[in-house]
Amino acid sequence: MKKTLLLTPGPTPVPEDVLEAMARPIIHHRHEPFRAVVEEVKEDLKYLFQTGNDVLILASTGTGAMEGSVVNLLSRGDKAIVVQAGKFGERWTEICEAYGVEAIPIDVEWGKAVDPEEVRTVLDRNPDARAVFLQASETSTGVRHPVREIAALVAARENTVIVVDAITALGVFDLPTDAWNLDVVVTGSQKALMLPPGLAFASLSEKAWRFVKESNLPKYYFDFAKEKKNLAKNQTAYTSSVSLIIGLQASLARIKEEGLENLFARTDKLARATRAGVRALGLELLAPEAPSDACTAIKVPEGIDGAKIPSLIREKYGVAVAGGQAHLKGKIIRISHMGYVNTYDIISGLAALEFVLRDLGFPVETGASVKAALEILAS
After folding, report:
1. pLDDT surpassing 90 at residue 107
2. Which domain holds residue 269?
3. Do residues 309 and 325 share a domain?
């Protein structure tokens, strides 16, 4: 019998009660029963985002909310500062350039967090920059960026907004939208929200909505003003992803029942246990100085063919992990500990990692990673 454990940084496991909710008979997206679902969901999303503002619901992956943030806030020829510290930082640049926005990159070594002082310097050199784009958690490297400090630099600048990709941050660690003056926060369903891919979300501050009024970039499907108008009627602008939103109702109920503080503490413990287990095997982390609690990026040891690990660990030991992207392909593996992941999932994942490393010829002390992880998980 083969059973697969999903420890990729998206999609992540979906709880049984959420799957059950999504399996209910379909209802019409303009009828009252579904409007009641949206009414509940939109309030619970405010709880998750820690904001008093509406959170838009889009039928797309998180990239749709990223693109929507660019086209709804900016105009052709605008400047935008982009923190490029991984694959998804580069995506901000690619979206900006696709719409004629001048991207001013801050290039950061993959595995490092951006220095807020560097952001300050670039802002001072470009006072006409209309936006700062960055990741709270860079999924491709397992790095957490200092969002709070960077947001403080932007808050006093009336003509600049901060836009945060929180796709692997929201529901993972504390990211209080309003308290930190985050103008735009976007996320996706298939990470800590414990849903299949297909939904994206965007929260906008009053300052950001002013930018929306001034934007002249082309937009149709990802029209935030249109979505806001429809959300006031407990609808989405276009055909809703009915089953996913009903699943969202169930997953948000789970999050509220656990409570954000407990959720963050649980994820932090799983992340620390994973990192301790990895170190106990003599392996190095890609981001030892600023690790994200979303996923752990592990350097493949010298002499080991890292490209073989994701397929071998999945096919032989039933654990799905992710490899590296771009120039890190074959050089790292990534293990997720966000969303519907528990103590025993982490133990199983580490044990499988020991097995596959042994198979590939790396000397492993059997049980070393599990022991190190248990010391943290049992505390």
Report:
1. yes
2. 5-10+259-377
3. yes
* Average pLDDT score over residue span 343-362: 97
| Rg from Cα positions in the chain | 21
Domain termination residue (choose one: 209, 232, 257): 257
- Give the amino acid at 8: T
Q: What is the tally of structural domains in the chain?
A: 2
Cα-flanking dihedrals φ and ψ of residue 293, to 5°? -80, 0
Angstrom distance (rounded) from CA 68 to CA 70? 5
Q: Using pLDDT thresholds of 50, 70 and 90, give the confidence band for residue 115.
A: very high
Assigned token pair, 166: 């929180």
Q: What is the DSSP letter of 343?
A: H
Band the pLDDT of 2: cuts 50, 70, 90: confident
Closest CA to 314 of 348, 279, 288: 348
Q: Rounded to two decimals, what is the model's pTM?
A: 0.97
- CATH number for the domain spanning 289: value is 3.90.1150.10
Any residues with CB less than 8 A from the CB of 23 and at least 6 apart, and which?
243
Q: How many helices (H) and strands (E) does the chain have?
A: 13, 14
- Residue 285 DSSP class: B
Residue 243's contacts (CB-CB under 8 Å, 6 or more residues apart) are 22, 23, 24, 26
- Residue 27 is part of a domain; what is its CATH number? 3.40.640.10
In this prediction, residue 227 has a pLDDT band, given cuts at 50, 70 and 90, of very high
* SS3 of residue 185 by DSSP: strand
pLDDT score of 379: 85
pLDDT in tens, 121-179: 999 999 999 999 999 999 999 999 999 999 999 999 999 999 999 999 999 999 999 99
Q: What proportions of the chain, in percent to the nearest 5, are helix, strand and coil? A: 45, 15, 40
Dist CA 6 CA 4 (whole Å): 6
Give whole-number Cα distances, 132 to 81, 89, 119, 175, in Å. 5, 11, 9, 17
